């Protein structure tokens, strides 16, 4: 009888060990489909940095029916990337978040205007905006400068603008901007409004967890963040090999892109990671940028209250 109890106890202990290990796994969902924007995480997985840090990470990209934040809310993933303005909206909406790693130090959003016109002269223009978000600063700018843009939502490409159905479109300097160039468009500098150069240099991509999950998995979060940072540091030193890894993920996910576009994207993403003032990759959320973005969004009625820096970091 004693041997039977020992066997049962051993089986239960093994099951508990497996369950605990599974709970410590991290499913990471970037906020967009596979591309060089997320190269550091791909490298950390491919090069074994997560494994060496003692954390098991699985990268699962979002879909049309399951966007990244929806997966985070439902517990289908434990970490995701969000732009700072998105994170502010989510926290204001009642879902506490913790920023565990900040990669972006500069804003990448631009407005590209058709026919060489200055976007600031196009009051009431039909302007393309992403249907999944990312355009909070543009909406604030349109209200603040009394431009009264008519926002036309698109999924993930520049076809409407190329076809002439829009007067202007929002674009990321590392993504849609290059798609327009690859589509054969000649873009005059005066037709491009860069938010970072006009008082809207607000950080974008950071890695977030729900505060509820973070509070019970601090050590796992730390390991994941440190290994991810190591991945990005490796990327900066090995861009060509990084592209090989990125293209493997792109091919696996069946994304319609090309190596030239991903090379341009990677170079721009790495540039945006360098802080303008310190000239370094700081990998930190800046309190001044949180205050700037939060106040701007409150002033333009996009937030119900000013979200403080302390609400986004470990307490």
- Beta percentage is 5-15%
By oligomeric state, this entry counts as single chain
How does the major sheet shape up?
Answer: 5 strands, mixed
Number of strands: 10
Number of helices: 13
Strands of the biggest beta sheet: in what spatial order? 2-1-3-10-4
Shape: globular
How big is the Rg? 21 Å
Mean pLDDT: 90
Order of helices and strands: HEHHEHEHEEEHEHEHEEHHHHH
Structural class: alpha/beta
User: Which consecutive residue ranges, at least 5 long each, have pLDDT under 50?
Assistant: 1-23
Q: In angstroms, what separates the terminal alpha carbons? A: 51 Å
Portion of residues in helices? Answer: 40-55%
Quick structural summary:
By secondary structure, the protein is of the alpha/beta class.
Q: Mind explaining what this structure looks like?
A:
With 315 residues, the protein is α/β, with parallel strands linked by helices. It has helices spanning 2-24, 39-46, 49-53, 68-74, 84-92, 136-144, 159-162, 176-182, 211-216, 218-237, 239-253, 259-272, 287-299, and strands at 26-29, 57-59, 79-82, 97-102, 109-113, 126-130, 150-154, 168-172, 192-194, 206-210. β6 (126-130), α6 and β7 form a beta-alpha-beta unit. α2 (39-46) packs across α10, α2 crosses α11 (239-253) and α11 crosses α12 (259-272). The longest helix has 23 residues, at 2-24. 43% of the residues are buried.
